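Posting for a labmate who doesn't have an account.
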Amino acid sequence: MASGSTPIERMYFNWNDALSRNDAEALLALYARDTHLESPLVPHLLGTDNGVLHGHEELRPLFAQLAERKPPVRQYYRTPYLTDGKRLIWEYPRDAGNGEQMDFTEVMDINDEGLIERHCVYWGWFGFRVLQRNEYHR
């Protein structure tokens, strides 16, 4: 895992590292036990009507599916983060400088233990098009 000087900086590097390695358990370890996650990917991968998950038991199947089904267009070029000391925000822009990638904005609230207590993922039009094309179900 990458290191950083603050819990926010550590999360910025460690979350992206775990996701890029498709390490579902390392990703899950970054979340508080009673965490809250919202993403359009939840109903898409889990076949639910709701895009909200709570706690490790609900997140585990999502991360397992994500590790198995992530499309190649899911890249990891991102902007520097913004923070107020508790909330962490960064963007994966559509234009990665060498082609298009899935575009997201990640918003995380980090608790006093340095774990994610709330995580909302906001998708751009290019990322949404990947869902429309069903590219996560290759």
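Reply:
Got it, the structure tokens are right above this. The chain has a mean pLDDT of 87.
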